[in-house]
Design goal:
The complex is a heterodimer of chains A (about 280) and B (about 280). Chain A has about 280 residues and is mostly helical. In chain A, about 75% of the residues lie in helices and about 0% in strands. Chain A contains 14 helices and no strands. In chain A, helix 5 packs parallel to helix 8, helix 9 runs antiparallel to helix 10 (about 195-220) and helix 10 runs antiparallel to helix 13. Residues about 1-15 of chain A have low confidence and may be disordered. Chain B is an all-alpha fold and about 280 residues long. In chain B, about 75% of the residues lie in helices and about 0% in strands. Chain B is built from 13 helices and no strands. The radius of gyration of chain B is 23 Å and the shape is globular.
Chain lengths: ~280, ~280
Amino acid sequence: MTTQADSVAAAAPRASAWPIVWRWLFVTVVFVLCLWVLFPIYLLIVNSLSTPEQVNAWPKEFVPGFFLDTLAFFWNFEGVASAMFNSVIAALITMVLAIGFGAPAGYALARFRFRGKTAYRLMVLMTRAFPMPLLALPLAVIFLQVGLDDTLLGVALVHTALALPFAVLITFSLFMGIPFELEEAAWTLGCTRWQAFRKVVFPLAAPGMAASAVFAFVISWNEVFVAAILTVNNQTLTAFLVQSLNESPVHVKFAGGLVLVIPALIFIFAVRKYLFSMWGIANR
Amino acid sequence: MKHDEWLPYLLLAPSALFLLIFFVFPSIDVFLLAFQNSAGEWSWGNFQLMGDDFNFGPAIRNTLLLALAVVPLQIGMALAMAMAISKLNRGRDMILYIWTIPLGISDLAAGIIWLAILEQYGFLNTFMFNLGIISQPEGWLSYQHPLTLFFAVVIAELWRATAIVLVILVAGIGLIPKEYAEAGEIFGANAWKRFYKITLPLLRPSLQTALILRTLLAFEVFAVVLVLGGLDLPVLMGETFRWQFEYREAGVASAYAVLILVISIVFTLFYLWALRVPEEAQG
């Protein structure tokens, strides 16, 4: 036992203070926490890849039957296909608006000193302390007056209000990370401000901007309350699932859950590097 | 470069205008809707309707109890996970990715995931049946078991929203210079003491951010409760939805919105005061 501990200590000097028991306990806890996150998702996949009969069976199997019946049933369930299409459209509009409005603001905050900067930043930070989905209530009234009620544009506009503060903060930290000297060098070489941005800054910022665009997409794709309040006939997927919660069979819910989860998993993997730059800056 | 003076304003204008129209104005509008009747006269009518509803008391109680149960557990869990992350060498990125997966998952999807486990014919009952603990499927989420329903929501919320606290805390720990802990080690502080006397105090701004954000989000709990409990566990956001969408009473829904807003502001101010960073320690 002692020789084993010694050899571990020799291999990893940092861990030398840790008795071997504690090391194993630590590894076990980390592993259990990984299971805690992953296993529920696995069980949802099991349900979605079984037949409706298996989903409603008792007792259940813990391995999937590898049937696509449930997903096929879900796809053919009335309203699902159009709801998925609507979700994608709303999320795409949100993405374009959030980046289109947010990135210039992020650039201005990172590169200029000007009067009113603090007031603007305060407004962006205020959105954090405000239960934003509630904005759907007054906006539902206004949308009714201007003919935006029950439209995807209406939903996307409110989702943009949710996503815009994030887009501003992410792009701000992004542009802060690109040395100003590079831009200045481009100017001295005869570039206009716009050319310098397009040829020097933008290529460097592009991956991060793509990440914040993806983030805006996910915010809209996942949002439930606003979508459920603002749409009646043009439902997004989340609105559809909420509004038909009592009528739809359980296997439709599970398939819907999986369809909601899959893109989110891929997107979070794609933007994982930028999660921290966002919250790191939010602490200051 | 003279024209540079108006350039920042030009760049800010679209987003500022957007936030003005879709954030500042509507947030004032909520109050107008809540404090006016359908004829546009000032009135407490909406609040009276809200207060007289039999779900009002339970909704407030459940929302506050949920926040009280979930938020401290999440802070504790995320703190432990963040410390574990800082101890990891190999596999750090992988573990961090796995632990932050729920960040991308919709609250609706999280509710559905836990429904699959906790429903009457779900995986938990199957597991307990196989072990011989129960002899028939138990309806943990039914109105006959309000306590297990409450715990089900707590577990689903813990699973879904601990990741955001983790991200904030990991980012915060990254900002703490390593030298402090090293100095503590040299002076003979053990791991627990270093955590308690060095890391935790320096992490205060991040803890404050995380606490405020998570508490506000806990007051907005909606889809998870709707999927797992439906009307058997009324919460404020669910009642807001019901009055707006089912009863078509925008005034009462707005009264609920004002209530959620006021509770959120009170708690934000409380945290800002309770966890204020001393002047001399501000960087």
